[in-house]
Write a structure and sequence with these properties.
Chain B: Belongs to the ABC transporter superfamily. Chain B: Pfam families: ABC_tran. Chain B: This is Amino acid ABC transporter ATP-binding protein. The complex is a heterodimer of chains A (about 220) and B (about 240). Chain A is an all-alpha fold. Chain A has one domain: MetI-like (MetI-like fold, Orthogonal Bundle). Chain A contains 8 helices and no strands. The radius of gyration of chain A is 21 Å and the shape is elongated. Chain B has a single domain (about 5-240), classed as P-loop containing nucleotide triphosphate hydrolases (Rossmann fold, 3-Layer(aba) Sandwich). In chain B, about 40% of the residues lie in helices and about 25% in strands. Chain B has 9 helices and 10 strands. Chain B has helices spanning about 45-50, 75-80, 100-110, 115-125, 145-155, 175-190, 200-205, 225-230, 235-244; strands at about 5-15, 20-30, 35, 60-65, 65-70, 85, 160-165, 190-195, 210-215, 215-220. In chain B, the strands form 2 sheets. A 6-stranded mixed sheet of chain B has the order 6-7-8-3-9-10, sandwiched between helices. A 4-stranded antiparallel sheet of chain B has the order 2-1-4-5, covered by helices on one side. In chain B, α4 (about 115-125) crosses α5 (about 145-155) and α5 packs parallel to α6 (about 175-190). Chain B is globular, with a radius of gyration of 18 Å. Classes of the chains: A mainly alpha (about 220), B alpha/beta (about 240). At the A-B interface, α5 and α6 of A face α2, β6, α3 and α5 of B.
């Protein structure tokens, strides 16, 4: 029953990379929208909004991503939706990314000197104009490097979706390993593929961080 | 049109337990130039920051150009459009050029068309004598130039009242004059001005009235000659002795 590890197997694993990328993209874009809402709530004047956002962050930073995946996956069935691994993984990873990006961006918003808000307020700019034209463009400079850093974490985190049966890179490796029983070879290949995805991003994050530090000390 | 530019009645402001402004009564006439001085922590900056509600107050009323700030609605936004403010630390927007700094608020809050906003911005940059810096970023300018941009940025909203919060305190000595000259020009043109500053030469040159604050109270107010010539309050006498 056990067959050889062939080039067709490698092709199968490589083609699963696209699902890892699709899942990462969905989670990152969803998380960017959710994270912006969380960050704005955390820095708002409303105590209720601040508390709610803080609670959301604590729940998602204080529980394992795997449990979040399980809860969403089985939770879909509880609310009567069909069990769908891609949907469950996308929702869970989006919520997870929202919490982390929200916290990163809250820090970036708070890093913008309060004089900027005061000057914009004194010029009678409304809250949306203040955020859009004055605060967020400055916060973005601070946030870019840690955001790319988190994207690397997120890509690696999608591997957990294999456990609820979504066939991304890791799950593709498991399937091939079950047929060929060459775990070192198979998972070595899988690991190399993750590395090829993540390493350039890590370099980019480090490069941006260094550039930021130079800009600050200048 | 009301006669008074600003009317403050029984204004009280607390930071927690700290009583920052104590029963402040102040009336500012149109076109009046007022200089406010006092030791640090006396409430002078807080006072002018309540006029555009950068600092909310706990009791009392503030009426600016006939609009009562504390009455709610969009009164605060209305007042802020008519009240320009210049800060000690300039607070220019570092990611925008000088010109963009000056155009943002008119375009967003007054809905001024871009071409008109740019024309106005260039005119005011001319007036503060730095038209050639329009395309630069704030970090490329000296402190004095940045503060003049900040004044131009506030003027682009065509305010009827200008507030200055220690505008020269963060400047190197050789740059103080260029900013004060700009302010003196503005005063001569009849702008209603409230300036928190320790530049007593400026107070003598342009102020109609000088106000001394201590511990959240207006302790003494007078025309400059009497204020500097024959100060009545002992704390003011000490203060003038220290800064002279």
């Amino acid at each position: 029953m056990i067959r050889e590890f062939s080039s067709a197997d490698i092709l199968f694993i490589v083609s699963a990379v696209r699902w890892t990328l699709i899942l990462s993209a969905i989670a990152f874009l969803g998380g960017a929208m959710g994270g912006l809402l969380i960050a704005l709530s955390r820095t708002s004047h409303s105590k209720a909004l601040r508390r709610m956002a803080a609670g959301f962050i604590q729940i998602f930073q204080g529980t394992p991503l795997l449990m979040q995946l399980f809860l969403v996956y089985f939770g879909l069935a509880v609310v009567g939706l069909p069990i769908n691994p891609l949907l469950a993984a996308a929702v869970a990873l989006t919520l997870h990314a929202s919490a982390y990006l929200g916290e990163i961006w809250r820090g970036a918003i708070e890093a913008v000197p309060s004089g900027q808000t005061e000057a914009a307020t004194a010029l009678s700019l409304s809250y949306p104009d203040r955020m859009r034209h004055v605060i967020l463009p400055q916060a973005m400079r601070v946030a870019t490097a840690p955001t790319v850093g988190f994207l690397v974490q997120l890509i690696k985190g999608t591997s957990l979706a294999s456990i609820i049966g979504f066939t991304e890179l890791t799950r593709a490796g498991q399937i091939i390993n079950n047929a060929t029983f060459k775990p070192f070879l198979v998972f070595g290949t899988v690991a190399i593929l993750y590395f090829i995805l993540c390493w350039p991003l890590s370099l980019l994050a480090r490069h941006m961080e260094a550039r930021m530090r130079r800009a600050i000390t200048r | 049109m009301t006669e008074h530019a600003i009317i403050m009645r029984a204004v009280n402001k607390f930071y927690g337990d700290f009583h920052a402004l104590v029963d402040i009564d102040l009336t500012v006439e149109r076109g009046e130039r007022i200089v406010i001085c006092g030791p640090s922590g006396s409430g002078k900056s807080t006072l002018i920051r309540t006029i555009n509600q950068l600092e909310p107050i706990q009791s009392g009323t503030i009426t600016v150009d006939g609009v009562e700030l504390t009455a709610g609605g969009d009164n605060v936004a209305k007042v802020r459009q008519d009240v320009g403010m210049v800060f000690q630390s300039f607070n220019l927007f570092p990611h925008m050029t000088v010109l963009e700094n000056c155009m943002l608020a008119p375009m967003k809050t007054r809905k001024t068309p871009r071409a008109e906003a740019e024309e106005t911005a260039r005119r005011y940059l001319e007036r503060v004598k730095i038209p050639e810096q329009a395309g630069k970023y704030p970090a490329q300018l000296s402190g004095g130039q940045q503060q003049r941009v900040a004044i131009a940025r506030a003027l682009c909203m065509k305010p009827r009242i200008m507030l200055f919060d220690e505008p020269t305190s963060a400047l190197d000595p050789e740059m103080v004059k260029e900013v004060l000259d700009t302010m003196i020009d503005l005063a001569r043109e009849g702008m209603t001005m409230l300036c928190v500053t320790h530049e007593m030469e400026f107070a003598r040159a342009v102020a109609d009235r000088v106000i001394f604050m201590d511990k959240g109270l207006i302790v003494e107010e007078n025309a400059p000659e009497a204020f500097f010539g024959s100060p009545k309050n002992e704390r003011l006498q000490n203060f003038l002795g220290q800064i002279a």
